[in-house]
Amino acid sequence: MTARIRLILRAGFAARAAFTLVEIMLALAVSAFVMFGCAAMMFDMMRLTEYFERGGAFKSHVDGVEKFLRAAFMNSEIETGNLGLFESPLASNTAKTVWLARDFEDKNVDKYHLAYGVGTEHPLYPSPLGFAGDKLCLLELLDGGLYIVWRFVQPEREGDEAAIYKMLLSPWVKKIGYIYVDNDRWKEEDEIKTMGYSDLMPKYIKIYFDRHGEKYERLVSPNLYLDFQISQ
Fold first, then answer.
1. Torsion-angle region of 137 (φ positive above 0: left; ψ -120 to 50: alpha; else: beta)
2. pLDDT tens track for 65-84
3. Which of the pair, 35 or 116, is modelled with greater confidence?
4. Cα 56–179–87 angle (5° rounding)?
5. Statement: residue 110 has pLDDT above 90
6. How far apart are CA 88 and CA 21, in angstroms?
7. CA dist 88 → 1, 78, 109, 176, 224 (Å)
8. pLDDT per residue over 123-180, tens digit each?
9. Which of 214, 197, 207, 213 is nearest to 64 (CA)?
10. Whole-angstrom distance, CA of residue 212 vs CA of residue 171
11. Which of 97, 187, 199, 212 could form an S-S bond across to 182 if both were Cys, CB 3.0 to 4.6 Å?
């Protein structure tokens, strides 16, 4: 009897040593699923590489700078009493929220920049002492690219002069064109003009981006109604 039981057990183990048809089909299905997933992942990685090679990331950067500047101009807040903190404010948009002003530090340089105000807290404008009040900003094209030069309306420490901060907005901005209306025609200038036009505030600024030969241009208006029209 014992020998017969051993024979039956051995036969059972021998039968289990082989895979059934269902198990084989299931293994093949799982293998196919894994291979399909790996192939899809490799395809996505190839598309990601192609995306970066074709400049998709750079275009996203350009679009981001454009949107930031539009939002900065449209949400600008400058109280009349704070205009004296700018150097020789020259002209403004119709809403008097974006101005032309000189650099905070280079007071003897007869060069003007677009100026706007920030009345809310934003991580782009940090203070070593925590949150602070209103901020005044200038858009300046320097050697390293497009910068925001800014200061707080009130100094961080009482009795001190307000510190001047610089934030790099884009290292790939190579030029800014200032577009005016001249005898019913558009005219682009390399610098903000202090005379020669009935309205010294440019209707648009044209931002020229260039990264290793890949170039983009973007139009932004400091005049709110114009910017709303071209953004549609």
1. beta
2. 999 999 999 999 888 778 77
3. 116
4. 100
5. no
6. 87
7. 113, 15, 11, 21, 23
8. 778 777 666 678 899 999 998 899 999 988 887 777 778 888 999 999 999 999 999 9
9. 207
10. 12
11. 187
Q: 3-class SS at 216? A: strand
Cα angle value 130/76/211 (rounded, 5°): 85
| Spatial CA neighbour of 164 closest among 98, 82, 104, 88 | 104
Contact assessment for residue 86 and residue 103, using Cβ atoms and an 8 Å cutoff: no
C-alpha to C-alpha distance for 89 and 109, rounded to whole angstroms: 13
Domain boundary assignment for the chain? 56-230
State residue 225 phi and psi, 5-degree precision. Answer: -70, -35
Nearest CA among 156, 107, 69 for reference residue 61: 69
Output the pLDDT for position 131.
65
Query: Cβ distance 188 to 178 under 8 Å?
Result: yes
Average pLDDT of the residues of the chain: 78
Mean per-residue pLDDT, 43-54: 48
Which are the contacts of 166, defined by CB distance < 8 A and separation ≥ 6? 147, 148, 149, 150
